[in-house]
Every structure is written in structure tokens, then in C-alpha cells.
């Protein structure tokens, strides 16, 4: 597992640096998507997460959910055009999961891409993700990730 300024980046995931999200290939043509450890740290204590509805068609760069914390309200943008196949009801009822478990329990939506071949070029992993997030954090003047009690990645 890679780490940047105490922020974790699991090796098996793909990342979109600008949107600060991760994607996990489910092996069936769908991808689980959530906020990175970096994004949840920037947001602070998340108090609300409202995913878009199952069946909703979304375009690359558009919101799949709205997240609210004590210091920020904003969209979770998708790097893939496609259809939302599932929403994580747990994060909708307890948004603090996004802070405690951004990569395990904290997935937000499952999306089935309609143009994966054309859009996956902006997704990175491994050293490319590590270097990209190092630059991102330097550019945004971000310090270290701070993990809440009970954090399990």
C-alpha cells in the first residue's frame, strides 16, 4: 500500500487525481467508487452523503453524490460515463464511514461504465498515482492525513 503524507493509497485501486476518487474493478464490468483518504481528510468530519439514485445515467465529470462536512459541501465527481448500478445505503445513513473506512466500507456508488476504453486513460495506479497525489497535495498546500478513531482504511 502506497502512502503520501500519511494518506493511504491501496495498490489494487485506480485513482482519478483531479476528482480525488478511487475505483475498484468488480470483475463484472462494474466499478465501486469512493472518496480517497486525501479527499476525506480535506473534507473533515463528514456528516452527510447523498448518492444519486440507482439507474441514474451520469456523465464523466458530473456528480454521483453530494457530501457535506462541517467545513465543506460539494459533489463527488465521476471519472466515468455510465449508469449507477448500486448505492451504498450505509454511507447514506452513517456518513462518518467515509472518514473511518474510505476504501473498504466507504464506497459510495457502483457504476457500470459505457465508455471505459475512451475514459480510463485518466485513471492511474501505483507509482503514477503516488506521484500524482504528491503533486496534488503540494499544489493544494495540504499537510498530512489525519485519521479518526476506528480508521481501517
Describe the structure.
The structure is a single chain. The chain has 153 residues and is α+β, with helices and mostly antiparallel strands. 22% of the residues lie in helices and 33% in strands. It is built from 5 helices and 11 strands; from the N terminus they run E-E-E-E-E-H-E-E-E-E-E-H-H-E-H-H. The chain has helices spanning 37-43, 89-93, 97-100, 116-119, 126-139; strands spanning 2-4, 7-9, 14-16, 21-25, 31-35, 46-51, 57-58, 63-69, 73-77, 82-87, 109-113. The strands form 3 sheets. A 6-stranded antiparallel β-sheet has the order 3-4-5-11-10-7. A hairpin with a 2-residue loop joins strand 1 and strand 2 (7-9). The relative contact order is 0.25. The mean pLDDT is 94.
Low-confidence stretches: none
Structural class: alpha+beta
The helix count comes to: 5
Adjacency order of strands in the biggest sheet: 3-4-5-11-10-7
What's the overall average pLDDT, rounded? 94
Sheet of most strands: 6 strands, antiparallel
Beta-strand residue percentage? 25-35%
Count of individual beta strands: 11
